[in-house]
């Protein structure tokens, strides 16, 4: 089983965004040392608890500090951008770090309605035009526009020896169908949806011979089950605070999460979030991942781990690397 990491650059309460971005780079270096397959950085906007709105900037810094691990975006939110601009940016990364760049693409807004309006005009129309935008982006990357097309006269310089590897990220059958139609790899966000992920991914694999798929899951691993469950409280409370527009302080501490005065509805939400997390000791997490592997028929999981303390996040990834013999 391959294991990879999706880093959302979480900002713990009491820490600065710079400290969180530095932690993202440090974690990427550690991921390479531990043997993880790939390391992706996310794109979020107007979310004070998450520090990275620009994956390509982070990837340039991460690439300069690593040597072999594949690095990529999880994801570039394409409706906010022109395809040519994204092709230029990721061709540049692929020129700097040959054979290592993944170009993960998504169509979510990645933030509030106000942030979406500030970022792009006609976002909903851009989402509808996503299939055409994806075609244009792939043609720019592969230099495959037909001669009669106006865009065949331009290239997204620099043109690398090894093009960025495109992936489509999604949480629905619609995104899986689009990835299959365009002939690109597919990453399913298990941690973001309650849809029938295994059915969606298996259908994609059936219709996309020779293409890769992976499944992104939320995981918190610790030396004991009790410790892992306590660590998970921070990210659970943070999501509740976000819903109440109280998430601006960042990821709360375990102590705050334990002492928080939860309503009955919030207690129910906490339990539902816990059910969607993979929590436990290395062996317990392994059992859960292997069960999911059987359901999804995939050989790669991308792990999302959010804790208040960066040390606990690192330890979680270290424990799993050791358990799986990466």
From TrEMBL:
Molecular function in Gene Ontology: oxidoreductase activity, acting on paired donors, with incorporation or reduction of molecular oxygen
Stretches assigned to the Luciferase-like domain: 1-294
Gene3D superfamilies, per the entry: Luciferase-like domain
Gene Ontology CC annotation, any one: cytosol
Pfam families, alphabetized: Bac_luciferase
InterPro entries: Bact_Lucif_Oxidored (IPR050766), CmoO-like (IPR019949), Luciferase-like_dom (IPR011251), Luciferase-like_sf (IPR036661)
PANTHER family reported in the protein's UniProt record: LUCIFERASE-LIKE MONOOXYGENASE
Record family assignment: To bacterial alkanal monooxygenase alpha and beta chains.
Name of the protein in its database record: LLM class flavin-dependent oxidoreductase
Organism: Virgibacillus indicus
Lineage: Bacteria, Bacillati, Bacillota, Bacilli, Bacillales
């Amino acid at each position: 089983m391959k294991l990879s990491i999706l880093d959302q650059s979480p900002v713990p309460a009491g820490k600065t965004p710079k400290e969180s971005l530095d932690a993202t780079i440090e974690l990427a270096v550690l991921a390479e040392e531990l043997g993880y397959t790939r390391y992706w950085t996310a794109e979020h906007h107007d979310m004070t608890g998450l520090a990275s709105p620009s994956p390509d900037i982070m990837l340039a810094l991460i690439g300069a500090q690593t040597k072999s691990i594949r690095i990529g975006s999880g994801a570039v939110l394409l409706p906010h951008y022109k395809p040519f601009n994204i092709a230029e940016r990721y061709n540049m990364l692929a020129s700097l770090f040959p054979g290592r760049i993944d170009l993960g693409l998504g169509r979510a807004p990645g933030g509030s309605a106000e942030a979406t309006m500030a970022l792009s005009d006609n976002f909903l129309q851009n989402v509808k035009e996503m299939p055409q935008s994806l075609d244009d982006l792939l043609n720019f990357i592969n230099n495959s526009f037909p001669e009669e097309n106006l865009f065949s006269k331009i290239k997204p310089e620099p043109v690398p020896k090894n093009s960025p590897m495109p992936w489509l990220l999604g949480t629905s059958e619609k995104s899986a169908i689009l990835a299959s139609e365009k002939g690109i790899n597919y990453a399913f966000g298990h941690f973001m949806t309650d849809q029938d992920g295994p059915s969606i991914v298996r259908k994609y694999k059936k219709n996309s011979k020779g293409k890769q798929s992976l499944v992104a899951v939320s995981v918190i691993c610790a030396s004991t089950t009790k410790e892992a469950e306590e660590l998970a409280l921070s990210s659970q409370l943070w999501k509740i605070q976000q819903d109440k527009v109280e998430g601006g302080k960042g990821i709360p501490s375990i102590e705050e999460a334990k002492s928080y005065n939860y309503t009955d509805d919030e207690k129910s939400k906490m339990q539902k979030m816990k059910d969607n997390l993979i929590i436990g000791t290395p062996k317990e997490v392994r059992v859960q991942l292997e069960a999911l592997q059987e359901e999804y028929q995939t050989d790669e999981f991308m792990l999302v781990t959010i804790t208040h303390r960066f040390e606990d996040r690192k330890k979680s990834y270290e424990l799993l690397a050791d358990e799986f013999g990466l």
